Amino acid sequence: MDTSEKKQLQILACKVRMGAIEGVFNAKSGHPGGSLSAADLFTYLYFKEMNIDPNNPKAEDRDRFVLSKGHCAPGLYATLALRGYFSMDELKKLRHIGAMLQGHPDMKGTPGIDMSSGSLGQGVSAACGMALAAKMDGKDYRVYSILGDGEIEEGQVWEAAMFAAHHKLDNLCLIVDNNGLQIDGPVSEVGGPEPIDEKYRAFGFDVQIIDGHDFDAMEAAFAHAKTVKGKPSVIIAKTIKGKNVSYMENAVNWHGAAPNAEQYEIAMNDLKKVLSGLEAE
Amino acid sequence: MAEMVKKATRESYGEALAELAKEYPQIVVLDADLAAATKTGIFKKACPERFVDCGISECNMVGVAAGLATCGKIPFATSFAMFSAGRAFEQVRNSVGYPHLNVKIVGSHAGISVGEDGATHQCNEDIALMRTIPGMVVLNPSDHYEMKAAVRAAAEYYGPVYIRLGRLAVESFNNSDDYKFELGKGITLRDGKDITIIATGLMVSRALEAVKTLEEQGIDARLINIHTIKPIDRELVVKAAKETGRVITVEEHNVIGGLGDAVCSVLSEECPVPVTKIGVNDVYGHSGPAMALLDEFGLNAAHIVETTKKVLGK
Known about the structure:
The complex is a heterodimer.
Chain A: H1 3-27, H2 32-37, H3 39-49, E1 64-67, H4 73-83, H5 123-137, E2 143-148, H6 155-166, E3 172-178, E4 181-182, E5 185-186, H7 187-190, H8 196-202, E6 206-211, H9 215-227, E7 233-238, H10 261-280
Parallel strand pairs in A: 1-2, 2-3, 3-7, 6-7
Antiparallel strand pairs in A: 4-5
Chain B: E1 6-8, H1 9-20, E2 27-31, H2 35-38, H3 41-46, E3 51-53, H4 58-70, E4 74-80, H5 81-87, H6 89-97, E5 104-108, H7 126-131, E6 137-139, H8 144-156, E7 161-164, E8 169-171, E9 187-190, E10 195-199, H9 203-216, E11 221-225, E12 228-230, H10 234-244, E13 247-254, H11 259-270, E14 275-280, H12 290-296, H13 301-311
Parallel strand pairs in B: 2-3, 2-4, 4-5, 5-7, 6-7, 10-11, 10-13, 13-14
Antiparallel strand pairs in B: 1-8, 6-12, 9-11
Helix pairs in contact in B: 1-8, 4-6, 9-13, 10-11
């Protein structure tokens, strides 16, 4: 990836993070930690990887995306707004009564949301259904789904994994946002989903492990996933929960809490610094 | 009157799917390793490329169905009622009901008449579970002809539908020549002025038997077949209550949350009359032959007759 394209993506990802913080701050609730860890992934998918059109969000042959870890909606919403699916102003109304942006993704009311999600473990099954529909109809669109590393403690995730491999869904690409934390603490202490790579390999997936904040790595991994035939792909993205907000990084208490006014200022200043650094380069 | 057939409604379901396959190329049928039992195997044979065996994973099956529906398919996700409505309840609620997707959830082997498999498989709670999901249509057809018409109606209708199937072979009583199925509309099988019996599913034919016996004993009972438990035919139920003053409901389901409660809910708001509920009285079943179990749990014509006479003080 050339430097200017990479910088563009980095700038966009920073804006996604700002949008997520904006949303959660105005909602006085929500999930900033995982929104920030997945921000680079959202950015890459919507600005580089997926075949989508914000002006025609339901185009039949578009690539699909399912946010299986639906609580990280603030990050996805910020991405969709930046990509032009709806106005950035909507972010300030997140979780408010009458708002378009619900606490968790609602496909009925929000352009660009391909599947309602939020109850952990369910989105990935729907992604399998979409991938299967493409196979049945002889279409070549691809289906992407981001899961949390805590989320994969749900049994349904492994039912879906078995299904995807059995039905040879090579048009399905899962991404595990492996930030190492879940709401009760480190994943290693709470539910023990590791080793994630070995599990997916045993379930018949093509497995890649990347730095989930590195756009070059993403480019290579998503390109490779497209070449895999006869089996589904998973990209295990090593990420930092709360990435780029100083006091949120690797802090479990920012899984599902909103910053107060003072904390909001600090977060925005942290992100503005990242942004100005990128723009100055 | 057309031919009388003795068939389990699960078989009628499988046949209906196979017949609709050509007309509805969007129909796909999913099962969770029970195709031989739920009779989706009939569709599988007719249309193998549109049949998806999901293995023993009902929660994933419902999610896959939801994903297929977002791409324009009409999935019929089928398993035993205990699993499709029971185990996967939250998947049905959140992945199908909340986004109002065009998925048909089908629960076979419902009720006590599962028989020998016993309590773990005798689902007397599916109607209650499915009724509580906003926007879910709940169907419980009573015989072969009604089931076939119901499956067609479910395919024609856009949105989530739950269809309840039985394991036990039952004799048909609807007339195939002029039978008309309308979603949300009850059918008055017999007019009467002394009392109204409202029955659903397997129990309709037994109630029909009871009403004949009652007639011989000078009791003029009205009989309504409610195949659509949600949305229930309020107008028909209220009219019957107004005209007869007393209601008995009959269902092969827990008396909590099923047809009886649906009727009570309507009547308590619009025409409060005494309602007596015949059903499974909030207990688990156990192993045994289906017919013996139905008798034991009071799900037969004799018990309906007896209850009716008691209610009327005769």
